[in-house]
Amino acid sequence: MVLKYLGTAAAEGMPAVFCNCELCTNTRKYGGKNVRTRSQILIDKSTLIDFPMDSYLHALRYGIDLSAISDVFITHAHMDHCYPQDFIMRCPPYAHNMTLEKVNVYGDEAVVEKFKTHTADEIKPAALESIGLNILSPYDVVDTANGMRVTALPACHTVGENCLLYAAQRDGKTALIMNDTGILDESVYRRMKDMGMKFDLVSFDCTYGAHGHGKGRHMGLPDNVGERDKMKAFGLVDDGTKYIITHFSHNNGLLHDDIAAIAEKFGMTAAYDGMEVEI
Questions:
Q1: Distance CA 242, CA 85 (A)
Q2: Of the chain's two ends, which shows fewer C-beta atoms within 10 Å, N or C?
């Protein structure tokens, strides 16, 4: 299983859209791995985790045929993870000779409702027919046509929305994708254990960088370490598990090399746009 981090920023991007703080100024100055687009992960060239407004840019930058994506799993309805307007273009005259006739999109009730309402004015029947919209609840399991098993898990994020995490499994390898979530209740880890899960890779929300966030809707590195300790206690990870941190806000004040050096001390890897990890 290969995970490609197409984007690694929080909602505002890095540098942030309208910001001239010290970090954003330095990001524009130094470029490279410091520049971060909105968070999105491609798994085995066929499955996307989240579909932000930067998806088109990601396709151009990394040579991705978006019409070949069979499944899109969306964590929640915020625009930096769910931008359904681009799906209006999934039919003629906007698209010809698509690789796959249909794409399956998964998410909670708010995600599916956003797809319907934010495309209603412009979407053509042919595009609508090419998109399978699927509502998921926590602990639902999806077996995709391309041989991946994806389990929806409850995130701690937007109040009033059943935001999700995803565990993706293929060929005996499992990755836990924790985009946009705060600290999880221990009952979630207990349920993971009861389901027989064990993770070869864990990808953490690290919005706050080196700063802890505590009981909130995001995490920082100290929170990531605490969640890893819980996973160890429940037997969900082992000595070979890889830990990746991503979804960084410019408010954490750290350029890539700085957050990467701090993460390394805790046995974790700071993602950057375009990074690939194989498990």
A1: 34
A2: C
